[in-house]
Amino acid sequence: MAIELKQPRKSRPAWHKLTVSAVRPLTADAVEVTLAVPEHLRPAFDFKPGQHLTFQRVEPDGSEVRRSYSLASTPRELAERGTLRLGIRSIPKGSFSGYANRRLLPGDVLEVLPPLGHFCTDIRPDRHYGSVVAGSGITPIIAIATAALEAGATVTLLYSNRTEDSTMFAAELRELERAHGDRLRLHHIRTRADGPTPLLTGRLTPERLREVLGAVVDPREVDEWFLCGPYEMVLGVKEVLEAAGTGEIHTELYTV
């Protein structure tokens, strides 16, 4: 008798309707969107810092738009407050990002898939986490950094922006510095304004990164790196870190 073995079918993630509880400006072209998650849906929306949500919206012409945005909040916030927070920067011709920045209001309802993505890790208190990030790529990084710091870990963060005014989650980063002291080693890099030092001013090329790393951290002391930003930056940083013989490297490409 022949026996046919079949792989169990994985159920497709289901869309859920979540209500917007707050929309807060972060910069001139970016907002933080907070979603309220009913208690019965919290298990479905449990996540690891670094994962993203996918939104679905029907345009006035009937076309369907789907876009994914990383979570800026932590699993602890979901458990304690029942909220999820995302940072959304408006991009040219961005249908959903433009809608979120100019028209989205508290009380609006969005169709959302549960969290997905592999830009994450199992946070451990005895680890040193490093990150090089540009622009809106800070969104998943602030979730990872917050969770790591709350667990007792150390975080080194190099954050590149055009100017201070274009820096998303600047106030939240200052609060993390205040709360966690020297376990957060935050270094702002400015590409179109003067940075804190000449070394931290200008585009983050591989050559400049080698200088910066030599001044602020030994890459070999970092257990895991998280790189988030445009393709050329992420690729260049990855090559520099690999040449330095550092720990595990996670990458995520972002429109900044």
How many angstroms separate the termini? 59 Å
If classified by CATH, what would the architecture of the largest domain be? 3-Layer(aba) Sandwich
CATH topology value of the largest domain: Rossmann fold
Shape designation: globular
Spell the H/E element sequence. Answer: EEEEHEHEEHEHEHEHE
| Main sheet overview | 6 strands, antiparallel
CATH class of the largest domain: Alpha Beta
Strand content: 25-35%
- Low-pLDDT regions: 1-5
Fraction of residues in H or I helices: 25-40%
CATH superfamily of the largest domain: Nucleotide-binding domain of ferredoxin-NADP reductase (FNR) module
Structural class: alpha/beta
- Spatially, the strands of the biggest sheet line up as 4-3-6-1-2-5
| Total number of helices | 6
Number of strands: 11
C-alpha-based Rg, rounded: 19 Å
What's the rounded overall pLDDT mean?
93
Count of structural domains:
2
Question: How does this structure look, described?
Answer:
- With 256 residues, this protein is an alpha/beta fold.
- The chain has 2 domains: 16-116, Beta Barrel (Elongation Factor Tu (Ef-tu), domain 3), CATH 2.40.30; 128-253, 3-Layer(aba) Sandwich (Rossmann fold), CATH 3.40.50.
- It has 6 helices and 11 strands.
- Strands 4-3-6-1-2-5 form a 6-stranded antiparallel beta sheet. It has a 5-stranded parallel beta sheet with strand order 9-8-7-10-11, with helices on both faces.
- The protein is globular, with a radius of gyration of 19 Å.
- The N and C termini lie far apart (59 Å).
- Mean pLDDT is 93; it is low at 1-5.
